[in-house]
Specification:
Blueprint (H helix, E strand, L loop, with lengths): L1 H8 L9 H6 L6 H9 L25 H13 L1 H10 L2 H9 L2 H5 L14 H14 L4 H8 L2 H10 L2 H9 L6 H24 L15 H4 L3 H8 L1 H21 L1 H8 L9 H10 L3 H9 L5 H7 L6 H17 L4 H6 L3 H7 L5 H14 L7 H6 L3 H6 L6 H16 L5 H4 L2 H10 L4 H13 L8 H6 L2 H17 L12 H11 L3 H9 L3 H6 L6 H14 L3
Helix pairs in contact: 1-4, 3-4, 4-5, 4-8, 6-8, 8-12, 9-15, 10-12, 10-15, 11-12, 12-14, 12-15, 12-17, 16-17, 17-20, 20-23, 23-26, 26-29, 28-29, 28-31, 29-32, 31-32, 32-35
GO cellular component, one term: cytoplasm
Catalytic activity: L-seryl-[protein] + ATP = O-phospho-L-seryl-[protein] + ADP + H(+); L-threonyl-[protein] + ATP = O-phospho-L-threonyl-[protein] + ADP + H(+)
InterPro entries: ARM-like, ARM-type_fold, Armadillo
Length: 547
């Protein structure tokens, strides 16, 4: 068993359809047989346990390694049926017992096991991987494995400093720095399962979106497939996610994952940082992560290092962005992380995903208050941000408009620097852009007149008011005769009307609007069946009538 399991482990990335799996699967004992092997007591030499081969294994292997290794391969390649059969036999709890050293020692009260262990480090990794596959076997199994404080504590102990140092010193299979990496990654895949499943559930933003966090964990995860195979599990995960997060906090998982970063090479940080990015999206976990030093400047410098893997840097950017969006209380810690120079460099990065996420992060850093305004000016970031409005990448343009709008929202400190953005924003309103990009551009123009009138002349002379009127005119037909298909679309019309209403507070803008040939369109929109559109149109008509 061990020999075959060791060979198959070399093909860990093989897909179900691969030639390797087609050849190997018939050689692996059936799930029920493997499950029976796990139930034998290795302390009773009278039992015909194929795993009980004292004297034939080196001291670097565990007596259960081969069995769990083949079990992992069968679950990986056998599909949902293999998982369901295994879960029905109660094997997941046996695997939990193995991890807790119950099967070999506690279960039968044996004081000696012929100086052997049940699982070596590589056997532990195979066992965790098998449990991860079992999570998709049904709501009951999922809850038995993950929604139990003592189980999360057990998994966490496997990646605590003491155990990691032992694995690092182990010179057999599964030891050394590579073994530490595999162990940490296996535990993270297991603990991240609920977050991956929910992120891929129908109705939620796709995990393949350019701004999703922890994308690396989604690849090949049972959690990515479960939402398509069993809606009951997804429902159970949704119902229990609050309880699960509470358990993670109580056990201290966020801090343990943070400490794992110190045990791994920079090139191996992809999965741990991806898990951090997923946890940051949940307030209780985010608070504990920040309190445990997530935003330590030395740690951030490491994650943003130019030699770091791309996925690590992207997730680090999302961590900053999500924390900034969640609560202004994190602003002080983000400032202490000293990341602005890194964000400035990422605005000029050759990778469009880097540029887009840097824009998004800066936008969220200006979302709740003007806390970072002076820092943006001091680091000369605003000008580069404006340039991103004409970026060749559409997502970067969208988030650049978002960031500029927030940089103008709270006060007029940055208005002089933002003056140069007006032609860019006006131009975007007339281009073939996504509706969200146009809405962001219209909103940014609104904020440029929100706090003072110092930019009104530029707003008019650079065609921004005219562009808003033209956009409103183009959208008016569908607004007056909305179809069922239009109702779900995010139209920039409302934001454009809102922006124009804000501009009407200033005489120069008001005069231009009143004299425009497109102004009558506003009057017709008062008859729109959508109340918010009619309300904004009426507000504009009322304000324009003022002297």
């Amino acid at each position: 068993m061990l020999a075959l399991a060791s060979i198959l482990s070399l093909e860990s990335g093989a897909l179900v359809e691969s030639p390797i799996s087609e050849i190997a699967l018939p050689l692996i004992p059936r799930t029920s047989k493997l499950s029976d092997h796990l139930k034998f007591s290795s302390g009773n030499v009278n039992e015909s346990d194929p795993c009980n081969i004292s004297g034939k294994l080196s001291y670097w292997q565990g007596v259960r390694d081969g069995c769990v290794g083949l079990l992992d391969s069968r679950l990986k390649w056998g599909g949902p049926l293999a998982v369901q059969q295994l879960c029905a036999s109660g094997t997941p709890l046996l695997l939990m017992g193995l991890l807790g050293n119950d099967v070999l020692n506690a279960s039968h009260g044996n004081d000696h096991v012929n100086d052997r262990v049940g699982l070596s480090p590589i056997g532990v990794v195979w066992t965790i991987s098998s449990l991860c596959h079992c999570l998709s076997g049904g709501a009951l199994t999922y809850r038995q494995i993950l929604i139990r404080n003592e189980h999360i504590k057990l998994f966490s102990n496997l990646i605590c400093d003491v155990h990691i140092n032992l694995v690092k010193c182990w010179i057999g299979p599964g030891g050394g720095r590579a073994g530490v990496r595999d162990l940490i990654n296996a535990v993270i895949d297991l603990l991240a399962f609920p977050f991956v499943a929910l992120q891929n559930a129908p109705g939620l933003p796709s995990a393949t979106a350019s701004v999703s966090s922890g994308f690396l964990l989604n690849i090949g995860s049972p959690g990515q497939r479960v939402c398509m195979e069993d809606k009951g599990i997804v429902k159970a995960i949704e119902e229990d996610i609050g309880k699960y997060i509470k358990i993670l906090v109580e056990v201290g998982v966020p801090g343990i994952i943070l400490r794992c970063l110190d045990h791994m090479d920079l090139n191996d940080l992809g999965r741990p940082v991806a898990f951090l990015a997923k946890m940051v999206c949940h307030r209780p976990l985010a608070i504990q992560l920040v309190s445990k030093g997530l935003l330590d400047p030395n740690k951030m410098r490491k994650l943003f290092d130019c030699s770091a893997p791309k996925e690590v840097t992207l997730d680090a950017l999302m961590i900053i962005s999500d924390l900034a969006r969640m609560d202004k209380g994190f602003y002080e810690y983000i400032k202490g992380a000293s990341v602005l120079e890194f964000l400035k460099d990422f605005l000029l990065h050759e990778d469009p995903n880097m540029r887009a996420k840097a824009c998004s992060a800066l936008g969220n850093m200006c979302r709740h208050s003007a806390y970072f305004y002076s820092s943006l000016a001091r680091h000369q970031i605003v000008g580069i941000l404006i340039e991103r409005c004409s970026d060749p990448d559409k997502r970067t343009r969208k988030f650049a408009c978002f960031a500029i709008g927030n940089a103008a929202y709270h006060n007029d400190l940055l208005y002089e620097e933002l003056r140069k953005s007006i032609p860019q924003l006006a131009n975007l309103l007339q281009m073939a852009e996504e509706d969200k990009t146009k809405a962001n551009a219209a909103g940014a123009l609104s904020n440029l007149v929100r706090n003072s009138d110092k930019l009104c002349e530029d707003i008019v002379s650079n065609g921004a008011v005219q562009s808003l009127l033209k956009l409103i005119s183009d959208c008016a037909v569908s607004a007056l005769n909305p179809s069922r298909n239009d109702s779900g679309n995010e139209s920039p019309l409302k934001i454009a009307l809102f922006s124009l209403a804000k501009m009407c507070a200033h005489p120069l803008c008001r005069q231009f609007i009143r004299s425009s040939p497109l102004f009558p369109v506003i009057g017709r929109l008062q008859q729109s069946p959508e109340s918010s559109i009619a309300k904004y149109a009426s507000a504009i008509i009322s304000k324009v009538a003022e002297p």
